[in-house]
Design brief:
The complex is a heterodimer of chains A (about 300) and B (about 800). By secondary structure, chain A is mostly beta strands. Helix content of chain A is about 10%, strand content about 35%. The longest helix of chain A has 14 residues. Chain B is mainly β. Chain B folds into three domains: about 110 residues, Carboxypeptidase-like, regulatory domain (Immunoglobulin-like, Sandwich); about 100 residues, Beta Complex (Ferric Hydroxamate Uptake Protein, Chain A, domain 1); about 525 residues, Maltoporin, Chain A, CATH 2.40.170. Chain B starts with a helix and ends with a strand. Classes of the chains: A mainly beta (about 300), B mainly beta (about 800).
């Protein structure tokens, strides 16, 4: 059973209890709002190209590719005076890149500042690259399906221990057969080894719900039948990204606002609210900005499932 | 403070001595009870024909009238009961206990049968609603389960967030601003199965009264309303059993005398059985049930002393696996001692224990598990005195001591065999209040009630008190300092004076104007960031950071009785409420296990105003009521909605309810209710953007509750079939029974509870644009038929 907040438990059980709820896709009119600059800046120490994407927000029902922001200047600097200029990509609007000439980006414990100049306005943010933790192993197991008549499911778990010393925040990202598992419900974060800051789970093995969240358990086939998260021959690759405390909170808000199980769960849903940002316009009266800046140290481990 | 108490005492002595200096007066007093089962009748009318002055029996059925010596005709009456007259010669104090017979015992039950003489326009009370259990049991209900909270929602001024939502909202107040008392014990969560059923077992409840305004000084502690639920005492004449079998619950209530006419008890229990019925198709360890047990006993020690002990225990359990699940429930216990100092001074001493807790656990086995427990516990001592000065003047005074303990979260767990435990510091509060309330009828036309409640609150240690840095309103405030306090040390203190006033001016024999003002203070806060209140919502005390909520309410009303027997009643009431220090939360607030919770909270102002129209036909084969409320409720909080006023989530401009009962013949009756309310407000996004490949809804105008859902309307119908009164051979059946067939949401309207915005759940290749959609949820999107069987013997 996977959940990031205990409240998500309620709807699951209630869903089983009452079958009267119903859902309809509806067309609604929305208020207009001006496009807002979105800075999606999650960089890490993986030895590969680092990307920061600048786009403009679009109308909620507009499913076209968002408009990339051209002609901005994107810089990351550290306290020692190192400057990491992110150059505008020639292939796609809004993509700004930095190539490590040797090794990888960043140093553990260093604080980085992001500065974006766009349209005469300056947007800044900063973030410390925190430590991550090593993944010891990945295991698979066969489990009885939940609910009446459910087939057995194959689940994966990763095994890792939180670093000693409280306050480590992690984002666990999973690739199944090379593709990032990245729906809102897949957001898997940890505060020390626990799911919330006040659990006092310092220095322990990550809690079971976190370990098992690398299995995408709610995926269904076209007939609405629950799919086994893994099957023989699948590969899984797990990364633990170190994140800031603000990023931990941000991912929590992101999950609450984007993961909508619907149905009777709406009774306990949090009303729609804007997720926070750690990027500020230097002029408090200037344009709005959304997005997030985090610098992660990453550890990873993969395994192929052989029954 | 001391000087205030002194002044009060002096005033009191003056009042009392003034009386004893008057002409020779004597008192007629006693208890008014139901002749069939000995239950005390609350609010029965005692009227002296000669002086045309009257009085009501109190919560224990006690009445007292002091009159100049002489001969009088005293008339005792109560809704649905046969009127009784007594000739009284007052040359000494008289003790007269009265038993009134239920009309239903003689006639066919009349639904809202009322004594036409009992006119709403004559009493001083306004902004109150009393529902008798007979009426509540006839209102069509969800799945055939008679429900007090759902019935209350059919009254003017009462709204909810939506179907299935826990609790109710009174005149723009939040769910946490209602004081729900079960035999004087506060009930922290009034729902079973979230908001679908309430915790009160109808078989054990005698009387339900909702105060929406003009709340007497006797009560305090919540801003918006008081729901006073009084339990039955138990039949003290003979054994009686009531019960029922429905689709959700089965119920059984047993009552019997302990010593005939002296003491009795009632024990009532309910249990749901979805889990039992569904057991064959559910996997191991899956459980879903809720139950409650309500019990009460009373004993009359002697004429002047009576003892009542009552308790409630309820639990909702959801288990899905041997070590996974959640459960929650209330526990209350009330011990009361009624003491008559003399025929004019009635006292009641109440001691209450009340607790609400929830537990949550997940994990597979002992090496991997997390148990999380949270609770709020109260101990209350409440001495109350009523002094019946004369037939037109009643003085109430007393006090209340409340001890609060909040346990925000205690966590025990293990991960891969390593055990951990962490408990957030418990929070302690203490509330002490004193009140005085005087009810005076100056002339048959003019009456008023004035009162004052003084409340004092301490936030006490052991605890750490934090201060927080100021930041842009709406952002999380970081801790600036921490100060530790020892056991019992006072961290912060608040005092509030809460004046209450209400008045009535009789225009004609059958019409009156009434007005009231009251101020209420609330020292504990319910914090919820979900659309509907849920069992995990956090109760938190007033502290050095959170100030007490203060509410002021003004009401005016016009009341009219009409018809040949005054069988019709009409009222129009206007209200204006303001609140201060209403607690709100920042976007992204972490409310559940947060040591620095107060850094995530905001405080704002509220205002609500409206007009309530109510028309009721009390008697006849066809009866019922129409209720219409035109209302508005808003909040203004720095940091939300750009600091502008915004509507509450349950704000409804129009709220119309029609309830009708019709008796087809001796055995069949039909009931129907229709509800129409304006759509409640909600927040829609304007835009979207991507964050690491996840589609984020965004409101570029940062507005809160900027859109309205579609209007809500629903019709429910139920048919009741009374079991035969006689056996085939003509002899009378000892037991009575009836069937209820009901349909909820007859025309199967899909009323919107919410509209949510989400991205497509397809797994797409990275970089592929994602589709977004809006989905409307109806909690009950279909008609629900049900049947239940009820019996009494």
């Amino acid at each position: 059973m996977k959940f990031n907040s205990p409240i998500t438990l309620l709807p699951i059980i209630m869903g089983a209890a009452l079958f009267f709820a119903c859902e309809d896709t509806v067309t609604v009119n929305l208020e207009n709002a001006s496009p807002v600059l979105n800075i999606d800046a999650w960089i890490n120490n993986k030895p590969q190209t680092q990307t920061i994407e600048l786009t403009l927000s679009q109308s909620y029902f507009d499913s076209s590719r968002p408009k990339g922001v051209k002609g901005a200047s994107v810089l990351v600097t550290d306290e020692k005076g190192n400057v990491f200029p992110f150059a505008e990509s020639t292939k796609q609007d809004g993509i700004y890149e930095w190539f490590p000439s040797s090794g990888s980006f960043g140093e553990l414990g260093a604080t980085y500042t992001l500065t974006v100049n766009y349209n005469g306005e300056k947007f800044v943010s900063s973030c410390k690259m925190a430590r991550t933790t090593r993944i010891d192993s990945i295991t698979f197991k066969v489990e009885k399906g939940q609910g009446p008549g459910a087939a057995d499911v194959d689940k994966a778990s990763f095994w890792a221990r939180d670093q000693i010393g409280s306050g480590d925040c992690y984002w666990i990202r999973t690739y199944k057969n090379g593709s990032l598992i990245n729906l809102p419900r897949d957001i898997n974060r940890a505060y020390d080894a626990g799911i919330a800051p006040t659990g006092n789970f310092d220095g322990l093995t990550f809690l079971q719900p976190i370990r098992e969240a690398i299995s995408p358990q709610q995926d269904e086939d076209s007939n609405g039948k629950i799919l086994s998260p893994y099957k023989n021959g699948d590969s899984v690759y797990v990364e633990i990204h170190s994140i800031s405390r603000l990023a931990f909170d941000y991912l929590g808000e992101l999950r609450i606002q984007t993961n909508r199980p619907g149905g009777i769960a709406e009774l306990f849903s949090t009303p729609l609210a804007n997720v926070s940002t750690n990027i500020n316009n230097e002029n408090p009266k200037g344009s709005q900005v959304v997005g997030f800046f985090n610098v992660a140290a990453v550890s990873g481990l993969g395994r192929r499932y052989k029954k | 403070m001391k000087s205030k108490i002194f002044t009060v005492v002096v005033l009191l002595l003056m009042l009392i001595s003034m009386e004893s200096n008057g002409q020779m007066k004597f008192t007629v007093s006693g208890y008014i009870k139901d002749a069939s089962d000995g239950e005390a009748l609350i609010g029965a009318t005692v009227q002296v024909k000669e002086t045309r002055s009257g009085n009501l029996s109190n919560e224990y059925g006690f009445y007292s009238m002091t009159l100049p010596s002489g001969a009088y005709t005293v008339e005792y009456s109560y809704i649905g009961y046969t009127k009784t007259e007594r000739m009284v010669v007052l040359s000494s104090n008289q003790n007269i206990d009265i038993e009134l017979s239920n009309e239903a015992e003689q006639l066919k039950e009349v639904v809202i049968s009322g004594d036409p003489d009992l006119q709403k326009s004559r009493s001083l009370e306004m902004s109150t609603a009393k529902l008798d259990m007979g009426t509540i049991s006839k209102i069509p209900s969800l799945l055939g389960e008679t429900d007090i909270i759902r019935s209350i929602q059919l009254l003017p001024g009462v709204s909810t967030v939506g179907e299935g939502a826990s609790g109710f909202n009174v005149r723009g107040g939040t769910v946490g601003q209602n004081l729900i008392l079960l035999d004087e014990a506060p009930v922290y969560n009034s729902s079973h199965m979230l908001g679908f059923f309430s915790v009160f077992n109808p078989d054990a409840v005698k009387d339900v009264k909702l105060y929406k305004g003009a709340i007497p000084a006797t009560y305090g502690g919540r801003l918006a309303s008081l729901l006073d639920v009084r339990m039955k005492e138990g039949n003290n004449k003979k054994f009686e059993a009531n019960g029922g079998v429905g689709l959700i619950f089965s119920r059984l209530a047993l009552e019997a005398p302990i010593v005939k006419d002296k003491g009795s008890f009632i024990i009532a229990a309910r249990r749901s059985y979805i889990d039992v019925l569904a057991a064959p198709v559910l996997s191991d360890g899956f459980g879903l049930n809720f139950y409650d047990v309500t019990a009460k006993s009373n004993y009359e020690v002697n004429k002047n002393n009576k003892i009542y002990l009552s308790g409630y225990l309820g639990r909702d359990n959801f288990a899905f696996g041997d070590n996974q699940g959640i459960n929650w429930g209330n526990k209350t216990a009330t011990l009361r001692w009624n003491h008559l100092f003399n025929s004019r001074l009635f006292a009641n001493f109440t001691t209450v224990y009340s607790n609400f807790d929830y537990q949550l656990q997940f994990g597979e086995d002992n090496t991997d598990r997390v148990n999380w427990q949270s609770d709020v516990t109260n101990f209350i001592f409440k001495p109350q005195f009523s002094y019946f000065i004369n037939s037109t003047n009643e003085l109430n005074f007393g006090g209340e001591l409340i001890n609060y303990t909040f346990n925000p979260a205690g966590i025990k767990g293990a991960s891969n065999g390593d055990a951990v435990a962490n408990t957030l510091q418990k929070k302690y509060g203490r509330e002490a209040s004193a009140y005085i309330n005087n009810n005076v009828e100056i002339s048959p036309r003019f009456a008023f009630e004035y009162g004052l409640r003084f409340s004092h609150y301490d936030y006490i240690g052991p605890n750490s008190a934090y201060t927080y840095r100021d930041t842009i309103p709406g952002k999380r405030r970081a801790v600036a300092s921490e100060k530790k306090y020892g056991d019992g040390e006072i961290i912060s203190t608040y005092n509030n004076l809460e004046p209450r006033f209400s008045t009535k001016f009789q225009l004609t024999n059958t019409s009156s104007l009434k007005a009231s003002y009251n101020r209420m203070a609330q020292y504990i806060h319910l914090i919820s960031n979900t659309t509907a209140s849920n069992p995990l919502d956090v109760w938190t005390p007033t502290s050095n950071n959170l100030k007490p909520e203060i509410g002021d309410q003004f009401t005016v009303g016009y009341f009219k009785d009409f018809g040949a027997f005054n069988q019709f009643e009409f009222s129009a009431e206007g209200y204006y409420r303001t609140t201060q220090n209403q607690v709100e939360y920042i976007d992204g607030a972490d409310l559940l296990i947060n040591k620095y919770l107060e850094g995530d909270l905001l405080s704002g102002k509220g205002r609500a105003y409206g007009l309530e129209l109510y028309a009721k036909k009390k008697t006849g084969r066809f009866n019922g009521w129409v209720s219409y409320t035109l209302g508005k409720s808003e909040l203004q909080v720095d940091g939300i909605n750009n600091g502008n006023w915004y509507p509450m989530r349950y704000d409804q401009r129009h709220n119309l309810k029609i309830v009708a009962f019709y008796e087809l013949n001796k055995r069949w009756s039909i009931s129907a209710d229709f509800v129409y309310t304006s759509g409640t407000p909600t927040t829609f996004p304007t835009s979207r953007y991507y964050s690491q490949g996840i589609l984020v809804p965004f409101n570029g105008n940062t507005t809160r509750n900027n859109v309205r859902l579609a209007d809500y309307h629903r019709l429910d119908v139920s048919f009741r079939l009374e079991g035969r009164e006689f056996h085939r051979d003509g002899s009378k059946r000892r037991n009575r029974d009836y069937w209820v067939f009901s349909v909820y949401n007859v025309y199967a309207r899909k009323n919107p509870f919410s509209i949510y915005f989400s991205q497509s759940s397809d797994r797409l290749a990275a970089g592929t644009p994602i589709k977004s959609s809006a989905t409307q949820v109806s909690i009950i999107g279909t008609l629900i038929p049900s049947v239940s069987y009820n019996f009494k013997f």
